[in-house]
Predict the 3D structure of the following.
Amino acid sequence: MPASKSDLPQGTLDLLILKAVALNPLHGYGIAQRLEQVSRGVVQVPEGSLYPALHRLEYRGLLAAEWKKTDTNREAKFYRLTRKGARQLDADAASWQRLAEAVGLILAMANGGTP
Amino acid sequence: MSWWSRLYRRKQMDEQLDKELRFHLDQHAGDLIARGHSPGQAQRQARLALGGPEQVKEKCRDARGTRWLENIVQDSRYALRTFRKKPGFAAITLIILALGIGATTVMFAVVNAVLLRRLAFPEPDKLVTLHGFIRNFGDFWGFSNPDLADVRSASRSLRVAAWTYGGGTISAPGEPRYADGRQISAELFATLGIRPLHGRVFRPEEDRPGAAPVAIISRGLWQQRFAGDLSAIGKPLVFDGKPYTVIGIAPAGFQLSGDADVFTPLGQREDRRMQNRTARFIHAVARLRPGVTLVQAQSEIALIARRLAIEYPKSNEEVTMRVEPLQQELVGDVRATLWLLLATVGLVLLIACVNIASLFLTRAISRERELAVRVALGAGWGRLARQCLTESAVLGLGGGLLGLAVAQLCVPPFLAFWPGALPRADEIRLDWHVFAFGIGVSLLSGLSFGLAPILRLPSRSLEAAIRAGGRTIAGASGRLHGAFVVAEIALAFVLLVSAGMLGNTLLDLSSLNPGLNVHNVLTARFAISPGALANASGIPQAWQDVLDRARRLPDVEFAALSDIIPMREGENSLSYRTSPSPVPASREQIALASTVTPDYLKVMGIPLRAGRFFNDHDRDNSEPVVVIDDNLARHAFGGQSAVGKHLWVPAFGAPPVQIVGVVGHVRHWGLAGDDQSRVRDQMYSPFSQVPVPMLRFFSSVMSIAVRTKTPPLNAIRPLQQELRGADGDQALYEPWTMEQLVSASLARQRFLLLLFGIFAGIALLLASIGIYGVLAYLTGQRTPEIGVRVALGATVRDVVGLVLRQCLKMVLAGLVVGIFAALAAGRVLQRLVEGMQPLHAATFAAMIAILAGAALAAGFVPARRASRVDPVRALRQE
């Protein structure tokens, strides 16, 4: 049984999607699957928001899409990272890292009770 | 992918989105089945995880970023549907808009072609004209040849070309006829930046005295006399009695202050006028040299003028020189009139927009419930505002397209009605500038009247609107409606007063005494036989022969010659003194000088006040004489009798001329313009005393004037026949009756009155419709209240009075605003229109009465309807 599921903080879905397709092109369902697997089930992708997010990223030119056959020989829309998307991913990831460390520091202080 | 192709491929994208989501559901369900769920359960769970497919799709569409465009398409469709449901509303709006935008577009097309578009020469911004200017002559003058030669050699900033008028009779090849001509300097074509159609232009060595006579002819003359054959170049052309060789054909449509058929080298002239520094008859066109600005050229030319003034004080003391852009010169005094008309049609369009806005407002209020329900269902304020704007923009665009069609139809009649020649009229057409203007204006007006209902959107509380059920709520809308009516009345009043002022002015001016008897007088320019001009001493006899032939006609009572004709183009201003000692040029008196034959006074019917007019005893060897008008007499001699006194006129030479008579003043500058003109003194000298060397020149400008016993237009044919002369090579041209000339002198004012009258009429009609609409709506809302009043005993009179009082309040408010606006507009008109009279109080009062009358009449219909309200029905409605 995985650990209890968490809601995604605002704005992180885009970052996660970009990261998920950074390795190789994926279709929407594949992205949701990969995020869930990699996070060991902690991240539950809100499927209702997944597709609008994909379309928005495609419109902004961060993702490119292509219809291709899957291994089960069905047509699916595969998303892949564009060069612009890769730059965005680097920037967003770095800023997320900083934020996460900062939040961690603050929480550590609250838990320890001493500076 | 552009947003346009996104929109265009909307359907395809929707299908793809569908497919993508289906794939997701199938994949998810497949995984769940593999984990042991039953197919039905798996599918249900997959759908639950994804959420409502329609919501997801809607969000995806939003994410595409073409939402706004899709909304516009959707709203436009919705708008078209509502218009189809209420075709009357849409039709009225479209007609009002089409007329307003059509009129505005016509005026813009004219303004664009005449004032805004650049001239059709290469680098037209660098083309300028030069003027000599003498303050108390009150007019821009041409250059004298010596002055221009000095300017040309001294100027570093300008390349200067020169031209002057020079018409004459073409006597071969073909039938003799008069042709307009221009004498031009060799560099004129190159300065303008144009090339001849065929052949070549004049060489510098051909632009000198004694060179072989060569000519460039217009394309029209080439077609007419040489059948458009290229062999015309090198062929002879007999013009003004002189054999020329044709060397070039001017490009089609080439004009120099009007059409001309023959161009000859100015520099070949050898007459004395060419050496005379006060003979300012040459026009100068110039091009700024590369890198020179207009201001630099202006200061350089001013400097040269000052130097010439010091060097030649006798002729040039008060002469300044100016450089003006050529375009400004070409359009001249038309500029003010055109802007005035554009502003006026803009005003009419504004009234139309206010009117439509109030229609829209009324409709918006009746749709209040629909809008409230939509807000309740989640539509945002912005979304509804956008929809209202889309509706009005669709109407605006429709009206704009119709308006462009109206403009296309109206441009030719507008030009036909234009008084006189509109410069650059041939360039007027509906190009993309005009098209963009028309569409822009229609969108703008669409958005402006679409704002009216939006202003109301937030003012109503949702709950109240829905609870009001089918009925609507009166209140705040009354104030907005009232504001519209006030604006319409104010605008209409401005137009009414302007039209009234013009009507007043025209009446006042028409009743002015022109100073001569205009009935039964025919005037025409005349080209005398080139053979007669060859020998200067024979010229007077040739002219006498013309007069004798004219008198021989049974219809002709008197015949005379004159170099200038009242109210026609052309003038000759000379300075005069009452003492032999010279005075500074700035204090010289100026008079309009006519050179005439003895019967001139009888032909024109000018009253003789004192002394005598010329007779056959005034000859070139008798004492030089002059006749003056009463203005000059008063000016120069005050109350004393002028007859027998002397005048010194430098142009006539050093000896004085004796005043033998005083005649009445003639409004030479037109009924409208004469009072404002700076040269108001007039003098006449006898043609028989023109010095022999000047006879050739005078012969080129003399006109014939006859007093007829029957309507003068009938005399044109017989005169033309009779005056062809012994050799059949004399021509009478540009015949005008004096009545036509007088009437033409007011043509601009009459044309403006016609247009302002039409505009004011339209404005009055629109304002009345607006008042009617608003009052009908407001009283409709008050029906229950009126029902109560009637039930409590109000009479028909009371109810009618109630509504009319409301109407009157709006009219009064509109008039207060309108009076101030009209006073300001009157000032503008007085500045822009020649001879405009200040506002008469009576006109003002009459216009107030007309407007108030029309408004109350429009208000009476709804008032009457309100008075017939059945109290029982009205109360039941409550």
